[in-house]
What we know:
The chain is α/β, with parallel strands linked by helices. The chain contains 6 helices and 15 strands. Helix content is 27%, strand content 25%. It binds ribulose-5-phosphate.
Amino acid sequence: xxxxxxxxxxxxxxxxxxxxxxxxxxxxxxxxxxxxxxxxxxxxxxxxxxxxxxxxxxxxxxxxxxxxxxxxxxxxxxxxxxxxxxxxxxxxxxxxxxxxxxxxxxxxxxxxxxxxxxxxxxxxxxxxxxxxxxxxxxxxxxxxxxxxxxxxxxxxxxxxxxxxxxxxxxxxxxxxxxxxxxxxxxxxxxxxxxxxxxxxxxxxxxxxxxxxxxxxxxxxxxxxxxxxxxxxxxxxxxxxxxxxx
Length: 245
Ligand code: 5RP
């Protein structure tokens, strides 16, 4: 009897970005958060899943004290039953799990599209192991190619601060929300600075930080201990090259 050849097509599973965020966030919490730790909780849609997972650990009996990187994160964490402490009440944070907007091969980052860069940087500086979680879309060869660089500025004279930022060869756009300037948890504005790639992030950071009116910039240089990256196939990769801590 004649049989027709049957072609079996293997359809690869491709995860959507929400699934990738959840996988990578949960993997980071499982790997890094241990009972008794002080934990920094990041801000953003990826960090959200990490906060939820930390909440599960607490519900299962873990004794954790957590520090928030934003008002929004604190609200989510409290709703998950997590004990929150002010940063000033702890000597150091054992591990912080936070997202990023761009990650380069040396583990240098752009953060702040979620508007929390100032507190995120203060918390990261107080942290022993800053763990970055992201889906693979955040990986870049060079910073400043996908994301603008968020810069938090004082409201006073912010238009003049913008002029100063644009001397660094970028287009600085005031971040808006609901028809008005977006105001950070610190009461400041943010300029999203679009570069055509950032050749020397260390030099740029020193230039931006020296400008009157600048409160903080979204370059997180030599701050990450490791980045966990979820691919669209659901594999979690560890990026720890270039760690300088
Ligand atoms: C907030 C941040 C976030 O970590 C960053 O914007 C990534 O957010 P998301 O996980 O939603 O893409 O820096 O200030």
